[in-house]
Structure formats: C-alpha cells, structure tokens
Design a protein that fits this description.
α6 links the parallel β2 and β3. The chain is α/β, with parallel strands linked by helices and about 300 residues long. It has a seven-stranded mixed β-sheet, with helices on one face. It is elongated, with a radius of gyration of 25 Å. α3 packs across α4. The longest helix is centred in the first third of the chain and has 28 residues. The chain has two domains: about 90 residues, no CATH class; about 190 residues, Formyl transferase, N-terminal domain (Rossmann fold), CATH 3.40.50. It is built from eleven helices and seven strands.
Length: about 300
C-alpha cells in the first residue's frame, strides 16, 4: 500500500515519511484543539453546537492546520496542491485555465514514455533553455518507471495515465490541454495511440521505431523483440525510423531514417547499443526540425 502511495504521489522515501508525519501531527493537533475549544465554550456532547463545531474543525480547521504543519517539514507545496483542488471543487477558488503558464511563441511538448527514459532524458537535455520549445510534461503509463525519476530530477510535471481512461475516454486530451500541450513525442511508449488523441493532435504526434520501417514494425515489435527479429533474419543493416503517428502501429508517414551496419558477431544486445546511439543523436534534432517547420511553413 505504501509503495502504491509513493508512486501515486510521485515522491521518494524521505518525502513520503515527512508527509506521513504531517498527517499524523495534523490529526492529533486537530483533535486536541477541538477538545480544548469545546471545553472552553462549555459545550456538552448533547448540544447541537458541539457537533457543528466538530464538523467545522474537521472540514475547515483540519485543512488550515495541515498547511501550517507542512511548513516546518518542507512539504507546503505538496499539500497546497491538494488544498487548491479541494477549494476549486467547493467553488471557493477559481479553477486555473492552464496548469502551465503559457508564454507566447513557446511550443509545449509532452513526452510519452513507458520505461527507463533514456530517449526522454536526451530530449530534455537538448531543449533545456531552448528559445521556443519547452518540455512541459512527461506522460507515463507505468508506475515506478525510470522516466518518472528523470521528470522529477528535471522538475518537469508528470502525468501517470490509466489504461481504461486512455482507451475508453478521450485519450487524456483534456489533461494535455490543461498543460497547454502543442506537440507530442513518443519515446518508448508501448501503448497504441487512440483515435481521439490523434484527432486532437493531427500531424503533431511523432514516434521513433528501432528498425527501418516498413520492415520489423507492427504490434509487439518493440525493443529487444525488434533486434532479435533483425538478427534472426541475418540482415546486414538496421537503423531507426522517425514517423508521424496514425491509427496503425508504426504506419504513419516517414520523417527520417538513419542506418547502422550489423556485424557478424552482433547480438540483439550489441545491436540495441548501436540503435540507442542513433536515437540519442538524431531524435532531438528531428523533433526540433519538425517543430521549426510547423512554426515556419513554406
């Protein structure tokens, strides 16, 4: 249970312990203050005002106390985020139109990734401080994936998505719009993109595949499975393909390909290293090129 909470809150072990301390102290303090106030006002438990006061302390006093207690523990930002949502639901605080502050002329990118996030890391590093391109969100479908740690280290918001909502809802389009996302980059994301998301971002979703499409693409062809198939077929070369995303796996219009040779003693592991080198070198540059062309169409 604790592990699931850590993943849901996207915190490390130390922060998780501090958060639990805040909850514990707040609960104890709220109970103590309620008893003191009812005693000072001489309100017996048979009096209706006794229960009204307890309810007010639970609903409003607790929320105020938890923010105060969170300050010395360095967790104010964590708890304020949840308090804002509560106040917005109660119509006491105006909902924010966007989570990310929009800057005119800036293109906000969401990176979708499912695993360790080596490509995501290279993309983040490439666009750090860029004049008009910003990595505004990391989207992940796997709790505990390494890419979430990369997002936290780079102080980039992360959105952990659920399969049911992704495929039977609208593909999290509403959430992406809240973050002001203009462009989507798939970097080792293993779920098929739903039609609703493709329609919301036409020609604005790109993917990288670790083979020379149209060969060795399609459902189930990712990571080591691709490299094993290429080696088994005794191909003399492999490479990467960057393409727009459509309704089919690895099917959209090609944007760029880069090749590498396959030596006789190559294994799926050594081929994967060659492919990773191509991905890390070319993907950030192609992303920049595609967005630049969107900004300045011929």
């Amino acid at each position: 249970m604790f592990q699931r909470l850590k993943q849901k809150w996207k915190v490390n072990g130390t922060q998780f312990l501090l958060i639990l301390c805040v909850f514990a102290i707040t609960g104890t303090t709220t109970g103590w203050l309620t008893r003191q106030i009812t005693y000072w006002l001489n309100l017996p438990s048979t009096n209706i005002w006794y229960w009204i006061l307890k309810l007010l302390m639970l609903v409003f006093g607790y929320q105020f106390i938890i923010l105060l207690v969170s300050i010395p523990f360095g967790q104010f930002n964590f708890f304020w985020k949840f308090e804002k949502k509560l106040l917005q639901r109660m119509k006491l605080l105006k909902p924010e139109s966007t989570i990310d502050d929009r800057t005119p002329g800036i293109i906000n990118i969401a990176i979708f990734a499912s695993g360790a996030g080596s490509n995501a890391k290279k993309i983040i590093e490439h666009f750090k401080g860029h004049a008009y391109i910003k990595i505004a969100l990391i989207v992940c479908n796997k709790p505990g994936a390494g890419v979430l740690d990369i997002a936290a280290a780079a102080q980039i918001p992360a959105l952990l998505i659920e399969k049911e909502k992704f495929f039977r809802g609208n593909g999290y389009v509403d959430e992406l719009k809240l973050y002001g996302i203009d462009f989507i980059v798939l970097a080792g994301f293993l779920w098929k993109i739903p039609v609703s998301l493709i329609q919301a971002y036409p020609q604005r979703i790109i993917n990288i595949h670790p083979a020379l499409l149209p060969n060795y693409g399609g459902k189930g062809m990712y990571g080591r499975f691709v490299h094993e198939a290429v080696i088994a077929a005794k191909e003399s070369e492999s490479g990467i393909s960057i393409h727009y995303v459509d309704e089919l796996y690895d099917h959209g219009q090609l944007i760029f390909q880069a090749h590498c040779s396959i030596d006789k003693d190559d294994t799926p592991e050594t081929l994967a290293q060659k492919i990773h080198a191509l991905e890390h070198t070319h993907y950030p540059l192609i992303i920049e090129k595609v967005i630049s062309e969107l900004q300045n169409p011929r």
